[in-house]
Amino acid sequence: MEIKGFSFSAVEAGIRYQDRLDLGLIYSDHPVVAAGALTTSLVKAAPVLIDIDRLEDGCAQAILVNSGCANACTGEAGMEVAFVTGELLAKELEIKPENILLSSTGVIGEPLNVRAFRDNISPLVQGLAPDNFEKVAQAIMTTDTVQKVCYHSVEIDGVDVHFMGMAKGAGMIMPNMATMLSFVITDAQIGSAQLKEALTPAVKKTFNRITVDGDTSTNDMVLVMANGGAQNSSIKSGTQAAEDFQGALQYVLMDLALKIVADGEGASKMITIRVCGAREDAEAEQVARTVANSSLVKTAFFGEDANWGRILAAMGRAGVPFDPYQVDISFGDVTLVRDGLAVGRSAEDTATAILKEKEITVCIDLKSGKCCEEVYTCDFSIDYVKINADYRS
Amino acid sequence: MEIKGFSFSAVEAGIRYQDRLDLGLIYSDHPVVAAGALTTSLVKAAPVLIDIDRLEDGCAQAILVNSGCANACTGEAGMEVAFVTGELLAKELEIKPENILLSSTGVIGEPLNVRAFRDNISPLVQGLAPDNFEKVAQAIMTTDTVQKVCYHSVEIDGVDVHFMGMAKGAGMIMPNMATMLSFVITDAQIGSAQLKEALTPAVKKTFNRITVDGDTSTNDMVLVMANGGAQNSSIKSGTQAAEDFQGALQYVLMDLALKIVADGEGASKMITIRVCGAREDAEAEQVARTVANSSLVKTAFFGEDANWGRILAAMGRAGVPFDPYQVDISFGDVTLVRDGLAVGRSAEDTATAILKEKEITVCIDLKSGKCCEEVYTCDFSIDYVKINADYRS
Description:
Chain A has helices at 46-54, 75-93, 114-126, 133-139, 192-205, 240-262, 281-292, 295-302, 308-316, 345-354, 382-390, and strands spanning 6-11, 23-38, 59-66, 100-104, 148-156, 159-168, 181-186, 210-211, 221-226, 270-278, 328-331, 334-338, 341-342, 359-365, 371-378. With 393 residues, chain A is of the alpha+beta class. In chain A, strands 1, 2, 3, 4, 5, 6, 7 and 9 form an eight-stranded mixed sheet that branches. In chain A, helix 1 packs across helix 2 (75-93), helix 2 runs parallel beside helix 3 (114-126) and helix 7 packs across helix 9 (308-316).
């Protein structure tokens, strides 16, 4: 897929490692509507701080992104360097620096290699082409094992609207407002307020529902740019068109979010924790999140052990009131626990077979209300520890 | 050490595995003062529910404990079986069942093997001897690799008072009121209200400050029995004697708590996270606990990587306000981060050498107040995953 007006480029800039794409550019041939959802961590990387400011006018023309260095915990010097990288690009593209969004991912606390930018901005801009989207998706990978992109189109008000999304992230993933990095472009015609209105709930239901290891990054961000090329009548709040747009955006973000979970560091399985029968959505989410973050639950999944006791134990510390002897738990369509008690050995044997699959849904019914939420996670493997004991070396 | 009036026994009852001590008994030759701190998990094992009730009168004569089965999530049947085990023991000892405290540890959700109790209560009672304390400490081990005991004596009001403590626990350890299991006996003369008064703050500063994996067990408990044999004048609240007693009890609990962390599942290092300069104790604790529970921080310690960026990132999601650019972080006596910024490569190299040690203290100074708290944890290793992927098989 291509979207007219957008072009992309990526180069091997040697920011931290040689011989890999590590500097990417998303460019629109004119300033377009933009919105973002950025990390809620108190410790925010320099590019996050800059983007919060630059997104205020709801307008952007380019996203400059690097892997290899997060430019986080780098103080005034880190801010200064980030500004310099933007200015280098602005000069090369002959656009305003304020319309460039910056994004970094990689090791925290090390200075950004500004020389790598200086030497490579020119070839980066020269490489811009409408079919280079996936090269950028590759350039933003760190411990990811696969590139993560999503192409989607939907009819809004009788007009075809297109979306192209990418994401990266495999560890330090329990986004709170955004994942590590995700960029989506669309040709929808939409105002910046309406774009923000669509983005916030879409992020809440997608990136904010995944967890690999319970850690929230300093650099998390989702950025969306909409250039209006589809020429639909501009989307107004509260209309069917707004609902369709939000649905399509959420589809793209969910696809990317699940790709992140499936590629979680060391993950061998994707696990959906669905909590139903809660009194409130927030309680359902809290229970699901506590289970999804339990190291004991996640190692049991890795061991393909239908250890529902660990699930109930995790639920018990979630801080949400429920009656343990009303709880049902099933793996796929096999009920393991009914009214808080084991159904029996043969159900466990069937569940153990289900655990050999790559995608598993755990349903927890609290039977005390009508609210339901899902959280998406992966198992906790030996490779997770290997990857993270080793990441910087 | 022995304490007159107390005797101990343990047998191989075959509750889950053969050829290992798995049933233990702590017995006092008369009913004595007792207090407990039990799990705050909403999901409470049968013995926990029974003990909460039986501790109300502040009096007990025996503790019956088994490993191999937690008797948690077992409903009415589990309660019934627990009562039966107590009655079997009461009959054999010719004491009141209400004076027997019950304790179980092991797999959740499986029925307790009552026959193993029936067949072994008699040899268990026959084996009672004043020097069998460590046999009970062995009988309560599950994934523990070493028995954990602590002997301590202290002068209170001019009289020598003795303490004998044991604990077990290696995984599912983020106690909230208690660790998995810990039993302490003492010959102090003290009322039940005063004993409870001493126990609560002592648990708060010790077992409630350790975390192996962020999971709180359904079976956590600390039980203390005091038989008055030291013949000190009974300890009154608010006196020097009360302070001395509380200090001694806290010493014993801290010793046992740190032994649990050092023997954390798969642990290769013990790590103290000390947060200073906080505005409130609770904020210091919250920051320390968030860092101590971060999988990324813990895997970095396993990898002996002085990755302070992960520490700052974890702090950023702790929900506690602080200025990242005021934070100092040191490993041992090496300052790695000053005012939120890296001190430099040579400090990191020195810190990396410190990480090769078995016990490491991380000091985090928020520089925004005068409050300090410590949380104790261990690293997150490949073996943790192996142990927990494999525990039930």
